[in-house]
Write a structure and sequence with these properties.
Length: 365
């Protein structure tokens, strides 16, 4: 027995309103005169046609590829499924899978057509990103192989330098070369473990000593560009638990970047201060920290690049590797530190690193 109440309810509903209000996918409905009767918000976003202005207008306002599919559906009176690509005014190029179906009345006469659009652009971008990751993985494999070769070659060089030191114990240059050879060996070792958890040798050290040594190593570049060094180690306590070689590497990465960005006769500022978490929100509730600030007077970093400076392989330098800052951030994080960056065009760039103070009665030599 037919349900007359249910049938009456369906007859009373406005089907157009139901579709417009409840369909969440990208859907477009046109009538037999090729006029748009429904354009859902998702369809408006994909096509760039305002939903509130499209109703009653010709399909001519739609992207040409989409308009052509509607025309073929109405003319051929059959369903069509096709992949098209178009660019709206607001969006980047989109790859769309379009499925159209003609609509008919009770007598079978064509009354219009319905199109459902599926955006595959995100999937294509994901595939491109996966391909990039695969290429980077290949580069990583090659880098590890090269690092092994470099590390093996360093053994002979380091042995030769150590012999020079034994024969000339008063030669300061030999001692400096030996320390730098050890630092290079540490860098290569970290490169070998870059894809896995690094294991820094954390011991109580004076951070000011590490900074002073790092500044001595870039003194030639400072003098060559006639850069004014503004150094102020105001932190009364500078003992942290850290790895001397890794921290030196992190500071040198920042100092080299700062000097490269600083014009001739510019200023390089390096200072330390104590940060109290009760007033500094960097790490609320943890022990007091020492903050190292490295600031240059260069051109600064654009806002769109500022959010990407710590991404591996991202660089704006013609011959840059894009690994300096990611490695620096990793070193800082392994020391329970935090690194932040601030920059404005034509006003220079500032890096700040906060380390927890070591407070266990250690008295450095």
């Amino acid at each position: 027995m037919p349900n007359h109440f249910a049938q009456q309810t369906v007859d009373d509903l406005n089907v157009t309103d139901i579709l417009r209000n409840s369909v969440s996918c990208a859907t477009i409905v046109v009538d037999a005169n090729q006029k748009i009767s429904i354009l859902t918000p998702d369809a408006a976003r994909l096509t760039g046609v305002p939903a509130d202005q499209a109703i009653g207008l010709s399909i001519e306002i739609l992207p040409p590829a989409l308009k052509e599919i509607f025309s073929q559906t109405l003319l051929g009176e059959q369903s069509i499924s096709s992949q098209i690509s178009f660019r709206s005014d607001q969006n980047a190029p989109s790859t769309i899978l379009v499925s159209t179906t003609p609509t008919r009345d009770s007598s079978g006469k064509i009354t219009g057509a319905v199109a459902v659009l599926h955006d595959f652009s995100d999937l294509e971008r994901l595939e491109a990103k996966l391909a990039q990751i695969d290429r980077l993985a290949s580069i990583g494999t090659l880098s590890v192989s090269m690092a092994h070769e470099i590390k093996n070659a360093l053994v002979a060089v380091k042995t030769f330098v150590e012999v020079l030191i034994i024969r000339n114990p008063q030669d300061e240059l030999s001692a400096i070369v030996n320390r730098e050879m050890s630092r290079i060996d540490s860098i290569v070792s970290q490169m070998l473990t870059f894809s896995g958890p690094a294991k820094p040798n954390l011991l109580p050290i004076r951070l000011h000593d590490v900074l002073n040594h790092s500044l001595r190593l870039v003194q030639h570049q400072i003098a060559q560009k006639n850069v004014q060094l503004d150094r102020s180690f105001a932190a009364s306590t500078d003992v942290v638990k850290g790895d001397d070689y890794q921290l030196k590497q992190a500071f040198l990465n920042l100092l080299f970047n700062a000097l490269e960005a600083t014009p001739a006769n510019g200023t390089l500022t390096v200072f330390t201060e104590l940060a109290d978490p009760s007033t500094d929100a960097l790490r609320e509730g943890e022990p007091s920290e020492i903050t190292v600030t490295i600031r240059d007077s260069g051109l600064g970093i654009s806002s769109e690049n500022l959010t990407r400076v710590f991404e591996p392989f991202f660089t704006t330098k013609p011959k840059g590797t894009g690994l300096g800052l990611p490695i620096t951030r990793r070193i800082v994080q392994e020391h329970n530190g935090i690194i932040t960056v601030e920059s404005e065009p034509n006003k220079g760039t500032t890096f700040r690193i906060a380390f927890p103070i070591f407070r266990k009665g250690f008295q450095p030599q």
